[in-house]
Amino acid sequence: MPWTAGYSAMKKITAPINRIIPFSNVDGPSNRTAIFFQGCQFNCRFCHNPETIHMCVHCGECVEICPVKALSIQDGRVVWNKELCVNCDTCIRTCTRSASPKVTEMTVDELLPQIERVRPYIQGITLSGGECTIYKDFIIELFPRVKEMGLTTLLDSNGSLDFEKNPEILEYCDGVMLDVKAADKDFHEWLVRHSNETVLRNLEYLLRAGKLYEVRTIIFPGRDKDNTDTVSYVSRIIQDRCIYKIIRYRQFGVREEQQRILGDDTTDEAYAKTFVELARSLGAAKAYLV
Amino acid sequence: MSDALNIVKDTTLTYPQTLLALAKLGENTDHTIRFSDEYYTAKEEGALCDLNEGNLPYRPRYICPDYDLLFAKGCDFLGIEPPKDLLEAINALEIFYNHVPSITCYPVYLGDLDHLLEPFVLKEDRAFAKKVLKLFLLHIDKVLTDSFVHADIGPQDSVTGRILLELTEEMQLAIPNITLKYDPELTSDDFALACVRCMLKTAKPSFANHRMFAKEWGEDYAIASCYNGLKKAGGGFTLPRMRLYECSLHAKDPEDFLNVWLPHYIDLQLEYMDKRVRFCVEESNFFKSNFLVTEGFVKQESFTGMFGLVGLAECVNHLLNIKDNKKGFGMNKEATALGLRIMDAIDKRVAAHTAPYCDAFDHRYRLHAQVGIDTDGMDDSPGTRIPIFAEPTMLEQLEVNEQFHPYFPTGTGDIFKFEETYEKTPEAILPIIKGSLSRGLRYFSGYLENCDVVRVTGYLVKKSEIEKLRQKKQSLNNVTIFGKGAQDGAHALDRRIQRHEEDHSTHQ
Fold it and tell me: pLDDT (tens digit, 9 = 90+) per residue, B436-464?
């Protein structure tokens, strides 16, 4: 295939962008632009913005209920008018499919000017989601261009993409922020409704490749064994080689039926701190509570 | 009751506050300086405001003494010898400050304290130096009881600068206001970060664009009062302000405003300034016999007049018939473009005016974005700021500011209130400051939403002190009353909070 064929094919790559936050202080070091992609293969019970999990199927239920008529159906597709939208999120509450009509399909060339605008004020960008690595071809095209701007590039990932088999995505990536939601296979499958096999392989591979920026684990109320298993597993592997963020479960935004299972209260701070101590005692010196 | 009787019976006034109020009353019985009828009409309409400067300018509004000269040769009038150690240096400053007048009666510029004191601090044990500086700051807060009292630090890192930051955070005092003269090439990231941490907890220091000020004023500039750029060994004669919203009320449309009413009010404000400057220089005793002048601590030619304005946003929104501020200036390209046209027109007309004196400034006044006063209410936002409750995202707010800040060599600034997570991530703020200063921002202030010491519009107050006034108790700081008024009338403390938007990450 001539190289131009590949080039023109690349030009057409798009990805669904749920949201761009120009200034974020919680998506990696310094001030960063966080770009949230739509869609995730996991379906975490604790997900607190479940509207990013699935793609819109254009059923139109949200269109009628929008109080400011910011949604319409054109050619069988739900179309979102940003100018009219007041972000009341009625559409998101209405959606029964864990999706959002407020998603923009963008090419790299459309996204880059938005990053360029913020460039003077940020150290880098972080791709998040949803699960950004679903759109790995988009990222492979985007990252070198972002590096040319003098910015750093981080991926915030659920670890579902096997990074060892996709080295191109890491070539222009400064690091991955990896969620290890559960070490135990069965608990992971119950919690996330997906296997953790690749996640755990990625944990070791990224560390070896020098691309693991941080690992995050959520501490759930009353689940001593599961919490202990995961924190111990991660700590023994990462030691002091990367940041380990211990995060408390928070009920905000979690679907009601899941709150009934996981709890309708935030994990107690003192309880969560015991897992920071556990992590440190096992050698994860850079563990801290968020 | 007479005004005087009202003042002396007001139980919320401290003794110095009572005295100053009576002095102003006395000053205003004189009407030697007369203005044109048009000027008085404009004042009556609220289009022009003299900030209650008083009828007789018996000293310039802002005075920025040459403290290097004090340390080099001492002061004959006050019997001060050049200091030889830290205690003598502090003592010399404390004595001197009490003799530096201003519109508020307190010194609005305390000097570049790190630069002045560093040679003496380095000769002492650090703990001792810190104790001395602690007492110095306590003296300032309790004796110079006015938030317009302002000290500068930077651009270079120093032991004194570090100690002052530590003490500022530990002591949680509203006075003095502090500015870091910030230049990313001269100021280390480590020192700048220490300043950000301190700013989050105490609303100071603010970050001044050192390169921008140094280019306009030379290296010998001072940041005084709220955020006022002035020349060291000089200062500002006077600061009246156009209330642009009121100025726009007679205009039929933007062109009528730009062609007829704006020049009309600009010329009246210039008339006011010229007459005050002449009186201050030619009639009052200050430039003839005050020791600050006779001993060379200030030079008359290094003073300029500050041409102030407020309410650009409301003026523009009125002229374009925009009722909702959220759709107006700062959020709407047409409105912002009109704002720039108005600023260009003001800049050009003021620059075309030959001012009396102001020799070091080519006989020109300099523009100033005034921060508003406690009685402004919601009609006039400070300077060229986007109105409270209509602020867009921080990025958009900075982009608007960057276009307007270059117009104001004698000062402008904006204030950003940060959500608590920033306490743990000060390194996320420094790139924002660096980026915006490189793009034309002149002055950046910030604080955490849960602070006690907060920045109202340009000056600092303690929320706990405002509460005292609400309970009809006295507040030592003369400015607390302004903070209370600005909060009650203009919601000055309710500005948008920069949040980390935690609900947008799937990963909790």
Answer: 999 999 999 999 998 888 888 888 888 89
